[in-house]
């Protein structure tokens, strides 16, 4: 049962965030056009308490479960999707570890303590050539006295300018018959790594500044090594499953929030698109365009309850057993592909005006296209869903 003081605290947070989200939306075009990190958004949102929403109360946060957290992620994404996407990399660490804490696993409480003190966590799981992200790694982890040394190239490091700890993984191949994946957190004070600026004028989500991180035998002490699990799907425990849940459902809500914004933009602008043919007062009376608008709404109406159900079930601890992987990946696949179909139809409706920067739509269109690339991408998603439902070994080779 929530205490009255906590409810009041949350109410204040929600009220403050409404204004902050509006200001984030007004800055989004500037960040995109100038290829800048969302620094002002970050500072305002951190000050308002957004980064603490899933941190437990005893560690200085608001104790929100996934359902509340994802609702705020979606609202922020409506105004500034790159900002919501970047901060999701921090929120999914705190949310996952808060879940573990509530289940009785307090081994990672130090992360919650650091987050409560204002430290920022980011994710370093992206790797070129790794089509099974998180489950394997092209980054090499070598056991040394007191910890591990990591050597490899990490991509898509959102929050590069501001993180204090980078959560990442590498693979220990010292036993070829039983490779192990090592999960660890690297403090920013570590030696022998380089953040390489690679995010200049990418297609979309520019403000995340998701630069590469080069690890050159970075030493991470045992205190920051958090999991050592078998490579592949057989290594999925509650920690790994939780990463998938919080990351993928976070991605889903970001792109769904963006899709909501796109639909509202179309509904606002379409009645003002003039038509001189057949005496129509506007293009809103074009039957084919009405068909596409209806399709966009149908997509929204199917994505929202799907996402809400999976998020609520996770928050409430529903036991789907091994089927959780299919549930999470299916929700992400549905949300990302549906959101992209909405954006694509919106471009048809917007017409030539949609490609002009001043319209504000071409930026949203570019951002929306990245939805399908996020893990699990369209190929891996269908492999997991099909094999999971058919009862096949997900690690079985050849794939």
From TrEMBL:
Keywords: FAD, Flavoprotein, Membrane, Oxidoreductase, Transmembrane, Transmembrane helix
Residues covered by the Acyl-CoA dehydrogenase/oxidase N-terminal domain: 23-91
Transmembrane segments: 239-263
InterPro entries registered for this protein in UniProt: Acyl-CoA_Oxase/DH_mid-dom_sf, AcylCo_DH-like_C, AcylCo_DH/oxidase_C, AcylCoA_DH/ox_N, AcylCoA_DH/ox_N_sf, AcylCoA_DH/oxidase_NM_dom_sf
A Pfam family the protein falls into: Acyl-CoA_dh_1
Domain of life, per lineage: Bacteria
Protein's UniProt name: Acyl-CoA dehydrogenase domain-containing protein
Source organism: Allomuricauda ruestringensis (strain DSM 13258 / CIP 107369 / LMG 19739 / B1)
């Amino acid at each position: 049962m929530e205490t009255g003081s906590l409810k009041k605290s949350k109410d204040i947070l929600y009220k403050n965030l409404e204004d902050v989200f509006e200001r984030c939306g007004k800055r989004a075009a500037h960040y995109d056009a100038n290829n800048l990190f969302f620094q002002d958004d970050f500072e305002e949102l951190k000050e308002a308490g957004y980064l603490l929403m899933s941190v437990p109360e005893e560690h200085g946060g608001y104790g929100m479960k996934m359902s509340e957290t994802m609702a705020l992620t979606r609202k922020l994404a409506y105004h500034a999707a790159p900002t919501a996407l970047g901060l999701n990399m921090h929120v999914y660490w705190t949310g996952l570890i808060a879940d573990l804490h509530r289940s009785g696993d307090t081994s990672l409480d130090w992360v919650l303590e650091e987050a409560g003190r204002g430290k920022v966590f980011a994710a370093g799981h992206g790797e070129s050539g790794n089509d099974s992200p998180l489950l394997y790694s092209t980054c090499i982890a070598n056991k040394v006295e007191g910890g591990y040394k990591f050597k490899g190239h990490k991509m898509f490091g959102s929050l590069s300018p501001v993180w204090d700890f980078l959560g990442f993984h590498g693979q220990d191949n010292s036993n070829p018959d039983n490779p192990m994946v090592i999960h660890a957190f690297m403090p920013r004070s570590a030696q022998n790594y380089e953040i390489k600026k690679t995010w200049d004028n990418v297609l979309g989500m520019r403000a995340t500044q998701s630069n590469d991180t080069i690890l050159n035998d970075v030493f991470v002490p045992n205190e920051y090594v958090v999991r050592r699990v078998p490579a592949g799907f057989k290594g999925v425990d509650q920690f790994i499953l939780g990463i998938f849940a919080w990351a993928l459902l976070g991605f889903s809500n970001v792109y769904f929030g963006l899709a909501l914004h796109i639909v509202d933009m179309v509904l606002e602008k379409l009645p003002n698109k003039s038509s001189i043919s057949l005496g129509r007062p506007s293009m809103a009376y074009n039957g084919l365009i009405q068909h596409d608008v209806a399709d966009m709404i149908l997509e929204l109406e199917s994505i929202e309850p799907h996402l809400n159900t999976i998020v609520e079930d996770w928050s409430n601890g529903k036991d789907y057993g091994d089927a959780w992987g299919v549930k999470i990946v299916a929700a992400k696949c549905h949300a990302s592909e549906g959101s992209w179909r909405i954006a694509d139809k919106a471009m048809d409706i917007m017409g030539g005006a949609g490609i002009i920067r001043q319209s504000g739509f071409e930026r949203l269109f570019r951002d929306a296209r990245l939805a399908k690339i996020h893990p699990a991408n369209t190929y891996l998603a269908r492999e997991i869903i099909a094999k999971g439902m058919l009862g096949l070994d997900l690690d079985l080779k050849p794939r």
